[in-house]
Amino acid sequence: MNGLLWSICVLCLTTLGIMFLLKKLNQPYLIAYIIVGIVLGPHILGIFTNPEEIEVIGEIGILLLMFFLGMEINVPDKRSLLITPVVAQSIKTLLSIIFAFLVGKIIGLSLNSIILIAVLFVFNSTAVVSEFLKKHNALKTAFGITILNMLIFQDLLLAPVLTLLKAWNKEDFNFIQIIFPIMVCIAIFFVVKRIRTTREIKLPKLFRAIENDHDLQVFFGLFICLGFGLLAETAGLSGALGSFIAGVMVGKVKIFHWLEHSLIPFKVFFVTLFFVSIGLRLDLYYLYSNFRIILLGTFFVLISNSFMSAIVFRLLKYNWRDSWYGGALLSQTGEFGILALSVAYKTEIIEYSLYKAGLGITCLSLLLSTIWIAILKKIIDKNQNTRIGKVLKHKNLG
Q1: CA 197, 199, 201 angle in degrees (round to 5)?
Q2: Tens-place pLDDT, residues 320-353
Q3: How crowded is residue 388: how many other Cβ atoms within 10 Å of its Cβ?
Q4: Count of alpha carbons within 13 Å of 61, Cβ hemisphere only?
């Protein structure tokens, strides 16, 4: 018990210290959580030595995060705001596959490695992007909704991708393993389409008794969030997607207004654990021995992902300012990229060295992406202000 309390106290104290520092630098707290994992991991202080145990607990945080996103976001009434993200993500997926094959052929990688690189390009971090949009009050704008719906569509793609990876080296592959998740995805699309035209979902008066009982609120809220996540996992989808759909439905029920207040401490704690587990996974000795390849790979991912995403937004008739900003937001490889790497390594699709390199690049892209977004945003805003200044100066001279 003393050892457990010591570990938790050190975790809280270290997290607080780094959060205060990042608050002064105006950076999101997600960076602090990853840094804490690195500092307290087996290669520095050694407070935590088993990332897998913390990761399993931390995945509950992703479910809660997606649940809150579903509650906060308004499902768009306009059909274009539902169709545009699907088209955008489809184009981005196609560009990612083409780009991965070109890079793979130039470097001389195997087909397995090329496919995995394509997968890493496809998935971005819902946690990082949504927190950034929320911080800058852009989550409920048309542009923010488009980006968030692209990320939700990525979550839909996760199920067939993981199924393919798991069945890659197996002879007893069954197409039903892929077809069933795809059918469930289509059903979810129609459910969301139905919900967007519903102003309020009314429940029996029995549920009103929960409003005045905090203990009932906590366990009922957790049951809804985690229960839908479990249903999604059973259907072959990601639990995060199930929790998001639960949040969208709960957001339409006015008598559940208390849920956010009751569950937000759980969300903060478990999301912290998830990103701490990412920091714990970083093998500092491997990074030090291969720092040139890892850094080059990380910046390659950030730049190429930004460029491909910017092209997608530009093709959808967004101006260059929004296109480059959207590209910056979708520059990193997300938490589902780590899951894809783990599955690929366990099924012997990739060797250990590529798994380590991919893990290092993914973790560093998450760590550096917020800084990358802030830098690009500052450059974009500066160029925009300069352009406006020139226009005003030209008008005054005229």
Answers
A1: 105
A2: 888 888 888 898 888 777 777 877 777 777 788 8
A3: 10
A4: 22
